[in-house]
Amino acid sequence: MGLDTKSRLIMEVLLRNPFITSKELVEDQQISKRQLTYLLSKINEYLKNERASKNIKK
To answer: Would the N or C end of the chain have less CB density within 10 A of its end CB?
Structure first.
């Protein structure tokens, strides 16, 4: 399972600027704090699954 477009965008922003605050992300992406929390949760779950699948393939 991959990430949706908005989740990928948030992840790219975080990779480019790891010190960005949640307030800045909310303002820059024009999303609510709740939406950001949900997107970050989806990104974390995706990364956990990717790591697990890489470990299994070894």
So the answer is: C
